[in-house]
């Protein structure tokens, strides 16, 4: 007899379908026990050989301010990017470029920022480096010896963390922009070169009234990326 569990329940399916990136948060702290519970739950993600790659660094207080200030200085100074890994394909295929543009249109459209408003777009992008003023700021790294499989496993843990947060009523947003300045992140946090910077993560109680949190992006239809063979 089949035994029902939370992963087959309609509530769990709805949670995965409704999860969105949140970029505005309430001034309400997230308790340390709750954060640790979310991280522990995220580590239940599948992992080849149970290696569990990746490290999560909670950054707070004066150190967080120093990190934000350093990253904003890089961003506004247009410092050259020196990522530890390639995120986007180069060159970007037109099909993917269209998705990227549509995503930006959804975000800046929700904010009322026009396409030609460079200052407005830069101001919003700069909020990445403030972790969107979320109460919890995480930096995610991976040992430099890992190949693509390690990033795959870490990605599943990151998604698990975001789902666990959503299940507790919290919002989150992964911050790929942090990977643009890995040397700065390592310098400020005192990390060695073996720690490749993957992303940041903002986490907290989402501000449901904030226009930026009304942005919605569409996912590609099933037929574009799934086919039955044989």
TrEMBL record:
Question: SUPFAM superfamilies this protein is in?
Answer: FMN-dependent nitroreductase-like
Kindly give the Pfam families that the UniProt entry links to this protein: Nitroreductase
- Locate the coiled-coil region(s) and give their ranges: none
Oxidoreductase recorded as keyword: yes
Show where the Nitroreductase domain sits: 17-205
For this UniProt record, give its keywords in alphabetical order, as a comma-separated list: Oxidoreductase
Family affiliation? Belongs to the nitroreductase family.
Protein name in UniProt? Nitroreductase
Task: Tell me the lineage of the source organism.
Answer: Bacteria, Pseudomonadati, Pseudomonadota, Betaproteobacteria, Burkholderiales
């Amino acid at each position: 007899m089949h035994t029902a569990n939370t992963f087959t329940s309609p509530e769990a399916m709805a949670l995965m379908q409704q999860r969105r990136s949140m970029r505005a948060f309430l001034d309400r702290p997230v308790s340390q026990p709750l954060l640790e519970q979310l991280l522990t739950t995220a580590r239940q993600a599948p992992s080849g050989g149970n290696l569990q790659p990746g490290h999560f660094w909670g950054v707070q207080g004066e150190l967080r301010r120093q990190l934000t200030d350093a990253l904003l200085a890089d961003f506004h100074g247009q410092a050259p990017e020196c990522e530890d890994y390639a995120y986007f394909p180069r060159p970007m295929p037109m099909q993917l470029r269209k998705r990227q543009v549509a995503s930006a249109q959804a975000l800046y459209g929700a904010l009322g920022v026009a396409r030609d408003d460079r200052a407005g777009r830069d101001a919003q992008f700069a909020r990445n480096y403030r972790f969107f003023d979320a109460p919890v700021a995480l930096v995610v790294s991976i040992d430099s010896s890992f190949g693509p499989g390690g990033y795959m496993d870490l990605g599943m843990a990151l998604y698990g963390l975001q789902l666990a947060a959503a299940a507790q009523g919290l919002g989150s947003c992964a911050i790929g922009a942090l990977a643009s300045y890995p040397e700065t992140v390592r310098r400020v946090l005192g990390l060695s070169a073996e720690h490749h910077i993957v992303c940041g993560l903002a986490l907290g109680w989402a501000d449901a009234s904030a226009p930026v949190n009304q942005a919605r992006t569409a996912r590609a239809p099933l037929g574009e990326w799934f086919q039955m063979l044989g």
